[in-house]
Amino acid sequence: MTVTVTSDVTSDATGDAHVVVPCPAGLDVRRTTGRLRRGTGDPTWSWAPDGIWHATRRGGDVVTLRLRPVPGGVRADAWGPGAEAALSDAPGLLGLQDDASGFAAHLHPVVARAHRTHGGVRLARGGDVWSTVVTAVLEQRVVGVDAHASWRRLVTRHGTAAPGPAPEGLRVAPPPRVWATLPVWEWRGAGVDAQRSDTVRRAAAVAHAFHADLTPAELARRLLTVRGIGPWTAAEVTSRALGDPDAVQVGDAHLPHLVGWALTGRRADDAGMLRLLSPWQGHRQRVLVLLQTTHLGRMPAYGPRARRALPLR
């Protein structure tokens, strides 16, 4: 889908600049963008009565973005030096650059039903590759609630206040140079072990090579050259930062079981998950998102819950 966005910086917009993005009826903005938020306490996002707020970076520039529905679409207001760049990326953030052509939801009744029920959920293109790298590394080998707590503490302590009239506590995550120089006690105080903190520092040294105009395959290739980043982390980054429709998080502790249970009623391993997803080659991340949206929290428990150390990924 091609969406034309017109900027009007001289209007009565609240932001330094704003756009109105035409959107199709039924677009689920909250669920589409919500996949990018790392827990309900993520200091770079705020769900407020006057809209969805997001503090981010475009290049080296900070920006605050607010999304709110208006007749015919979504209005995006932006504050800060990165405003124009963020507004040009607004259609991607809303999932409007997500091309679902060729997606054969009908190949399995569970997928078809999920697509009918949640067809308004698109694959968002977050655009901030570096911050996505950090969050993905923090989520390696630990449960999500702990990774989200680490992200919240580190961004709150070392990020910068979001520009403009942002909700209280909204922060822009630090740039690579700050992550590269965080002292060890800051990492440990946030519950981040040496393996993950060292991986973030190694990635920060080559962060200039990770940018949003790369293809998912090329970004993944570059990420995999960093020691400590594997296929799971690369897929997390390409799926969230670039809206990669085919990314599969191989090595996840729970995703294969979710896919197996949803599609066959039985558990699956990584090989089984890839086999089950093969009919949707090119759209495997789309299937995963639909199954997570529909079935997450409903999957039966298999034995004791995993403790706070999951397989290396």
Automatic annotation (TrEMBL):
Keywords tagged on the record: DNA damage, DNA repair
PANTHER family per record: DNA GLYCOSYLASE, DNA-3-METHYLADENINE GLYCOSYLASE
Name under which the protein is recorded: DNA-3-methyladenine glycosylase 2 family protein
Organism in which the protein naturally occurs: Cellulomonas xiejunii
Phylogenetic placement of the source organism: Bacteria, Bacillati, Actinomycetota, Actinomycetes, Micrococcales
